[in-house]
Design brief:
Blueprint: H1 30-37, H2 50-64, H3 71-76, H4 90-96, H5 98-113, H6 121-134, H7 138-156, H8 175-180, H9 186-192, H10 200-212, H11 226-244, H12 248-256
Helix pairs in contact: 9-10
Length: 275
């Protein structure tokens, strides 16, 4: 049986830039920085629809002897239709500015969390395609997960009440502001809203749900005061029991037969009348 071997001499893959420790470098290359610093060098043509972008990518793949059946390789030749790197390929962006790539991913997540994410126009279609392409690489996915964990750790260091909403028209309000003004209905709206786990909206939902349904048996007594108050109550109960054990007759008798206090003032001698 004869084996068919596929050989594509023109196949190209992404070459990620990494630092000495093996982590992805997020700083732009000199070529990327040149475009960022010189708007006159950026592509000013109108964005084109994705079908045209795909057809052009397939043409490039076939001309160089690449694998036109490999969706990742084909997507790598898609031309960006948005931003400062418009006119460059998807693969070029991953190789030249990972930092900008992560910015796009984070910004898209914020839009989704705020319910503002809408795919409209050729530029938006290009952005969606690029994000899908970038996240198909394990290196980008790992970096995204790392950045998300780092954000959670920093956020945990701040009191929950002081956390900023971070999305929508209440972005600059704290979580406590949302709870304190819950009569306006915004808190109820957030609690009922469907959203992805781990997003800002999801964390706000968890905070509001804890406020709405606090754990049973919770108390507002400050822990440092609890032992002293308990001891004081015990002493009061003992004193009360001792007082109740004294009968009224004993109390009267003891008060009548009690010797005069030694601290009482001595009687005054009578004054003599002057003759």
């Amino acid at each position: 049986m004869q084996k068919h071997c596929s050989f594509f001499p023109g196949r190209m893959t992404v070459t990620f830039r990494k630092g000495p420790l093996g982590y992805l470098r997020q700083d732009p290359t000199d070529a990327a920085r040149l475009l960022k610093d010189n708007p006159s060098l950026q592509d000013q043509h109108a964005p084109v629809k994705e079908a045209v972008v795909k057809q052009n990518a397939l043409t490039v793949i076939r001309m160089r002897g690449g694998d036109a059946s490999d969706r990742t390789e084909v997507a790598g030749e898609y031309i960006l239709q948005f931003g400062k790197y418009k006119g460059k390929s998807f693969r070029w962006l991953l190789e030249n500015d990972i930092g900008y790539t992560m910015y796009l991913i984070t910004n898209q997540q914020k839009e989704e969390a705020a319910g503002l994410f809408m795919a409209e126009g050729h530029s938006k279609d290009s952005l969606l395609s690029f994000l899908s392409y970038a996240l198909s690489f394990g290196e980008i996915q790992s970096l995204k997960d790392y950045e998300a964990k780092k954000t959670v750790v920093v956020a945990a260091a701040v009191s929950e009440d002081e956390q900023l909403v971070g999305f929508g028209n209440r972005a600059k309000n704290t979580w406590r502001d949302i709870w304190d003004s819950r009569d306006d209905g915004y808190a109820a709206f957030i609690v009922k809203k469907k959203c992805a786990a781990g997003t800002r909206m999801h964390r706000l939902q968890q905070y509001l749900q804890k406020k709405l349904h606090p754990p049973s048996g919770s108390t507002t007594t400050h822990p440092s005061l609890a032992p002293a108050e308990a001891m004081g109550m015990d002493r009061d109960e003992e004193l009360e029991q001792a007082m109740l054990s004294i009968s009224p007759s004993k109390h009267v008798q003891s008060s009548v037969s009690a010797p005069p206090s030694s601290s009482a003032s001595p009687p005054q001698a009578p004054r003599r009348k002057r003759g």
